[in-house]
Prior knowledge:
CATH class of the domain at 111-381: Mainly Beta
Domain Cytochrome c: 743-881
Signal peptide: 1-24
Radius of gyration: 29 Å
CATH topology of the domain at 111-381: Neuraminidase
Strand content: 15-25%
Pfam family, one: Cytochrom_C
Largest sheet: 6 strands, antiparallel
Number of strands: 34
Oligomer: single chain
Keywords: Heme, Iron, Metal-binding, Signal
Strand order of the largest sheet: 1-33-32-31-30-34
CATH architecture of the domain at 111-381: 6 Propeller
InterPro entries: 6-blade_b-propeller_TolB-like, Cyt_c-like_dom, Cyt_c-like_dom_sf, Haem-bd_dom_put, Quinoprot_gluc/sorb_DH_b-prop
CATH superfamily of the domain at 111-381: TolB, C-terminal domain
Shape: globular
Helix content: 10-25%
Amino acid sequence: MTTLRKRPFRLLALISTVVITAVACNNGNDSTSKNKETGNRKIDALKLPDNFKAERLYSPGDNKQGSWVSMTFDDKGRMIVSDQYGYLYRLQLPAVGEDSAKLKIEKLIIGGDTSTQKVAMGYAQGLLYAFNSLYVMVNHNSDDRFNKGSGLYRLQDTDGDDQFDKITLLKALEGEGEHGPHSIVLSPDKKSIYVIAGNFTKIPEMNNYKVPPSWNIDNVLPFIKDPNGHDNTVNTHGGWIAHLDSTGTNWELISSGYRNPFDLTFNDNGDMFTYDSDMEWDFGTPWYRPTRICHVTSGSEYGWRPGTEKWSPAYPDNLPPLLNIGQGSPTNLIYGGKARFPEKYRKSLFAFDWSFGIIYAIQLQPDGASYKASAEEFLSGSPLPLTDGAIGPDGALYFLTGGRKLESDLYRVYYKDNKESNDPLPVAAPTAGANIRKQLEAFHGGPKDGAVDFAWPYLKDNDRFIRFAARIAIENQPVSQWQNKVLQEKDPETLIQGSIALARQGKEDVKKILLPQLMSINYAQLSPSQQIDLLRAFELIFVRMGKPGAALAGQVAAYLDPQYPAGNNDLNRSLSKVLVYLDAPKSVEKTMALLAVAKDDTAAQKTAMQSADLILRNPQYGLDIAGMLSKMPPLQQTWYATVLSQAKNGWTPALREQYFQWFYHAFTFKGGHSFIGFINNARKNALDNLPKSEYAHFNQVSGDSLVNSNGNLAQGFPQPKGPGRRWTVEEAVKVVDSGLTNRNFEQGRAMFATALCSSCHGMRGEGGVAGPDLTQLGTRFSTKDILEAIIDPSKTISDQYAATVFSLKNGGSVLGRLVSQDKDNYVISQNPFAPQEVRELPKKEVAGTKASAVSVMLPGLINRLNEEELRDLIAYLKAGGNKSDSIFLVTKHPVALSKK
């Protein structure tokens, strides 16, 4: 097991000077990777299981063919791909072991009209060849070059000349971009199609719905929209999955409530899965959800809602994930059944993460009506922006990198000599729970005789997936058939689940009967999960049927008040928001007492990939994680503070002082891009509940001076005025050399801070310690050297600052900067913002090591600066922060700096 501890250490190098290639390191115990180096930098940077090989077959970027994001294979074994912002291409691939120069490629211009390009197709984030057709999911609305808006298209070859000449729009979709419509997947029986879309895509009108659709937010937590505007105009139903026939005539909604799932797949049992994303800007908030593997069942809901309103996985009206992966950007998900791989991997789902360049192998174990899941790192690289992948006709795994116009490549991965059998594996019989779930799902999609009688007993089943399927079956039936059964039900669990169904589908007038019925339940005799279900039933009645009148609200508050506080954080979250919403007499006092002492459940936040292990895999995203982990916000306290922002009554002067002082302290924590904005907006909501005479005092007490008008922490330095540009070394050197005299010291110092240099580097005793001190930089290196290190930090990496990839015997890997080692352990640092926190990694768990080819420094940090700001920054660096240096002009009016 690895351990974390703090140990001071000295950083020795002054600047990156050594070009690192991905070669094995001699680590003292002769533990090296079993996969041989090829001499190809990109291939050798990949981490693979033993006996797997990788080939880089083609680079679209090298051939000015864009950045590829989707693929499929046609009936002749050819690969068809799409540039994210351009054309479709068709490739004839060389066989495994053949020279990649034999690859042939053609641009697909539908109908052969290359002069006008009006019938070209592209911008596809989903491709599928099936039914003698190419299905194309166009994800773009604003380019006349292709004259095809977002939607699902069918391409056909009607004259047999091996070229597509007919385009049929099957359904236009409202949505585009990275959260628009995505993948297209063939059904397991090869008779129909499934499509998946992100949360910026409206659910179109469909012929049928597995569950009556709803756009309700269903949450009494104070609604705070994303303060940076990301999800403020999107749909509250979230991402969705639909089923359709080959002609696109009949569409049926299967599932919704995701954030931005890109792909779906089926295992040998015909069960569907997807890999849903998080919102990295929400790091450090209690409503943040890691990327996760979800079992997509009929009528399923996974609880994504905008801003603060995302549902807890514990709520009974959505389903829990099979596995929380961690931070990342999910793209592809495929099943390995047809691969020529060892059986373990043939039974795995392969989940692609774009941000951190990891393909996870997800192993599934049947568990009741669903599955348990575990993950291992199958393949990784840095950088490796994974987009799409597929098991080819030859049984090899093919995958693409690229997206966002990044450098793009096509790879092939195979096991040994690619001769393993890929004959169908034996399929295990469905569990008894899975059979029951599927019988219940037969009643989804509309009224069916016998549904209520069959489903009713399963509302109290021990299996959550069965209870969910039973409730959806009942909700599909006319309310008149089952409303009285709910109101007369005596079994507590059945009553709770029936009340949730009635709250969602019934009329408001039943509220006065339903609430007393729920209060007849002996709360203390329920299990913790049943108590959460009951609290959720109350909440859904309030938001769907309206807040009860004062008398009835008081009765509910009196019923719940003795149970608060409870013994776990999940229950306290539900109790706090419901009781504060009801204006229960002691709700503020009790919630403030919890706010003062609340601790987070570290076990509940467990993910397959530890956050610290991701920091060095991608500087752009990793440094955000590093900053958060260096001073992690308290999730449970943040929840209580948000809940209390709507409380108008129950405050004493001491409680108000304590509450608003919490915000001042909260602004010192580090979360995602939106964390401070969420906290600040909750603070403003709470201030709006004050008497005008008290506003000024509590505005000051709560930290108004710490945040600017945009809701961001004041940095104490003016921000760059720009306009910036994507600086190249050549352009930057030319600009700096043309005017590096009479520079502005204060502006150079400000740019050193706002370009994040000071976060990791010291200058004259001030700044960070994660990188080399830069005080003597100008005496040792040229302007070009300095600019090259800033603009392209991965080009040269000091061996004393390079990260090391530790390949583990269990199939995973760990990245960190090697601080020291003894005969038993490596001691590594993973967080450049908290370098004193180190981790001990037992050598007995390590299969091999090699140096990472990626700098921990973020590239492009100066891209916000204009020419004058860049000159002042370089002057500040070359002068070593010495204001008396002759390079600076003495001015009477330097840039104003905050003294805070």
